[in-house]
Amino acid sequence: MKQYTHFIGGEHHSGTSGRTSDVFNPSTGVKSAEVPLASASEVETAIAVAEAAFPAWSATSVLQRSRIMTKFTALLYQHQPELAKLVSLEHGKVIEDAMGSVLRGIEVAEFSCGIPHLQKGEFSDNVAGGIDLYAMRKPLGVVAGITPFNFPAMIPLWMACMAMATGNTVVLKPSEKDPGCPMRLAELFVEAGGPAGVFNVVNGDKVAVDTLLHDSRIKAVSFVGSTPIAQYVYETATKNGKRCQAMGGAKNHMLILPDADLESVANALMGAAFGSAGERCMAISVGVCVGDEVADKLVKMLTPRVKALKIGTSLEKNLEMGPLVTKEHRAKVMDYIQMGVDEGADLVVDGRDFVLEGSEEGYFLGGSLFDNVKKGMTSYEEEIFGPVLQLMRVQTFEEGMALASDHQYGNGTSIFTRNGAAARTYADRVEVGMVGINVPIPVPLAFYSFGGWKASAFGDHNQFGAEAVRFYTKVKTVTSRWPESTIAADFSIPTLK
Fold first, then answer.
1. Distance (Å, rounded) from C-alpha 14 to C-alpha 34?
2. First vs last Cα of the chain: how many Å apart?
3. pTM reported for the whole predicted model
4. Residue 484 — very low, low, confident or very high, per pLDDT cuts 50/70/90?
5. Cα–chain-centroid distance for residue 275?
6. 2-248+456-478 CATH pick, 3.40.50.150, 3.40.1280.10, 3.10.290.10, 3.40.605.10
7. Where are the domains of the chain?
8. What residues are annotated to the active site?
9. Vertex 95 angle, CA 351 and 152, to 5°
10. Which of 172, 384, 425, 452 has the largest count of CB atoms under 10 Å?
11. What's the mean pLDDT in 425-433?
12. What is the side-by-side strand order in the sheet with 2-3?
């Protein structure tokens, strides 16, 4: 059985807290590893190591940092199958999906290689007689990343790559449910020539999180997880004087207009709702049908497809869905399905009885499909985070848009239609941070940025893209003059002439 460690200062460190957590293979339900849960003192050691590494790393030329990130990116591509296998074995994503999730993280690493351009400041010459004005973007110091179980490669790369490229040092606290991939990322960074202490990984639970949130040496915190924890992280971090971006939960709607190509809609909903067993903050979990005719046709199209989902162990190929991440999370999703039934929604397909022959102890569910879900149902208002698709019926475009706009979450949404004017209106007016037009999962590419609105995000900056450069740097502005003669005293506020 594998024994995980912490990765601090370029070396593996066994835990000394005496506390561990079990890691399971979701496909079999068998314990595969133990991971140490860091004590406060162990986290503080990692912070101290990162702090000691910061002066040299921040003073490293931007070209050299770019070259190291380029080598790191090349290694990530080389090891993509290995990283994807780690994701599949510990999270449960089917291998093709895991490969794609690793690639989306590598794309941010690629983007970070352009840091010589991205981190350029501003310069204005001769703003007044002999005076030049310029601004520089400087790194913050030691920053923390706290990442969720559902994307153990992609989200750590979102955070760490942009933080390190801009000259910061990192302490990453990944999910204790699937720690293998984040640990491997840190090893590969050192292999790429990254200095020891720049990329550190401490495994842990709330003790580690709270230490990062309260330690004055941590200058910024980036978090992705559930909304209650995101709000806690944001409020605690900012109370302690830290910059913070905290991404929370979601309930993403797809608005389906009567003119939409329903074959495309059905295909899009299947992938967006049931891919990764619904464990995506950008999963489409609600289909909003404009008109009963659209809804009736869609239910008829989706029902056999949901029943026929190709489900199996995560390393099998050509599957559509694997297991959920833990036995406890599987039970939670099943409770939400029962809640939907109790609240009066129509359970068209019930995935709770699914059993995979030969893997009876795995954390599997079949896909579930609800119809006639209503606003106000708890199972609609809250995030289920599992393979459950809820269909709602509305009579007008405006009514459908209001569902997405009025919901407490505002991460992503999409609209399927052939009507360009309707699509443009929806994208412009809907109160959601990321919008897809005939695209079911509108996760932006690395040169834009990722972030929701309302209870889906706390803080002023999004993940990756130019927003990340702004989040991980602070501006220093310099007013410069090289006079040819003595400067006279001036007791009024400086003005430039």
1. 11
2. 73
3. 0.95
4. confident
5. 16
6. 3.40.605.10
7. 2-248+456-478, 252-437
8. 281
9. 90
10. 172
11. 98
12. 2-3, 30-36, 20-25
